[in-house]
Amino acid sequence: MSNAIPLAQPSLTDLERQAVLEVLHSPFLACGPRAETFSHSIAELCSRSSGIPCSSGTAGLTLVLAALGIGAGDRVVVPAFGFVAMANAVWSLGATPLFADCDPRTLNVELESVAKLLEHKPRAVLAAETFGNPAGMPELEALCAAHEIPLIEDACEGLGGRIAGRSIGGFGRASVFGFYPNKQITTGEGGVIVTDDTRLAERCRSLANHGRGEDGATFVRPGWNFRLDEMSAALGIAQLSRLSEILDRREAVAAQYTARLSGNVDLILPSVEQGCRPSWFAYCVRLTGRWNATVRDEVIEAMAGHDISCARYFPSIPKTPAWQGRCEPKACHTPVADSISNRTIALPFFADLSTSDVDIVCQSLELMIERATFRHRSSSNNQVDGFDQA
Q1: Which residues are paired to 375 by β-bridges?
Q2: Nearest 10 degrees: CA dihedral of 360, 388, 343, 323?
Q3: How far is CA 159 from CA 65, 171, 214, 347, 363, in A?
Q4: Distance between CA 292 and CA 233 in Å, rounded?
Q5: What's the angle, vertex CA 283, arms to CA 337 and CA 1, rounded to 5?
Q6: Would the pLDDT of 388 be above 50?
Q7: At how many degrees (to 10) do helices 14-24 and 230-240 cross?
Q8: Residues 111-123 as b or e (16 or more Cβ within 10 Å = b)
């Protein structure tokens, strides 16, 4: 297993290690200056006026929803195709997700699907740049503005991306970033909320620190301990100084994958819309519509047998065991997300992935697909459990 190719890994140097060590020699391990410095820098990157540090992207989403007064009995539009943290944040406050279907090309929420869900009077729309692709976000922002409903941008997968001259993290009432180790930059665990709404920023900051007021001694509302520690913030500051380098390297890896796999008729590759610069969080391909989840899972398992880690990004949230039966029947009809989620394969992807490793991944992937094709075609006169027959 020493030659295994992992799904993801952070890009770390001695700069990051030294930054964390310096915190251990300082008087502050928590509630110090680095968390504020880091969150302010993220806000500046997005042209936002306020940055609030927090313990994770999920915590950030929960804080924004709570600060908007969303709770039991409320509804929030959430992407069906995306990471489950979005639905979990809504659920944690007693509210109900309304699942929007996805655009088959961009994999972001489909505008018409969101528009239909607005008939159910949601309190907010929560939307993400799936895999770091900002396509459609300006149009979604305009739709929400026309209906006077707050848009919360889950920017956790998109740090550094741009569309139409605007940064990911600059859309809607507030935006949330997460910095788990598979992200473009990492703090280990951690997140940042950015917004131009000073009152919302104050409420988020208070809620993240047990509900304390500005004096730090008076508790003005119930809250959580969702703070970001100083070691994590120091790591983030060092990583942020290398952001351009890391993004360029990730973009180069994505380009290598695209060049290598573009001729494969069994694969649909990520699309980049005109005017977009994605921030490549992951490189996810999907098998064409004649395949189903059975073969997709076989391919992933076969890749693992060759020490290559792949993943099923993302399951359709309303079809997961956790969410089946929990959503309103009229607000979880997501056929595109359901179909796509059965065929996605996230390939190994990180800044330090070598050209030779990209070649190994692509050769192995194509071989595993060929083997699956032969195996299922040979099983019985095209009555194949691995093919969609519709």
Answers
A1: none
A2: -150
A3: 21, 13, 29, 20, 30
A4: 42
A5: 115
A6: no
A7: 150
A8: eebbebbbeeebb
| pLDDT tens per residue, range 79-132 | 999 999 999 999 999 999 999 999 999 999 999 999 999 999 999 999 999 999
Report CA-CA distances (Å) from 277 to 8, 130, 258: 21, 13, 15
327 is written with which tokens? 């959503």
Rounded CA-CA distance 78/59 in Å is: 16
Is residue 64 within 8 Å of residue 199, measured between CB atoms? no
295 HSE (CA, 13 A, CB side): 26
| Rounded Cα distance, 208 and 195, in Å | 15
Q: Average pLDDT over the chain, rounded to whole?
A: 94
299 in Cβ contact with 346 (< 8 Å): no
Model pTM score:
0.95
DSSP 17-38: HHHHHHHHTSS-SSSSHHHHHH
- The rounded percent of the chain whose pLDDT value lies above 90 is 90
- Residue 390 clears pLDDT 60, i.e. is over it: no
Q: What percent of the chain has pLDDT over 70?
A: 96
Let me know: does 157 contact 132? Beta carbons within 8 Å: yes
Q: Alpha carbon 217 to chain centroid distance? A: 35
Domains of the chain, start order = 14-100+107-240 (3.40.640.10), 243-377 (3.90.1150.10)
**Owner of token pair 């009152």:** 199
Residue type, 155: A
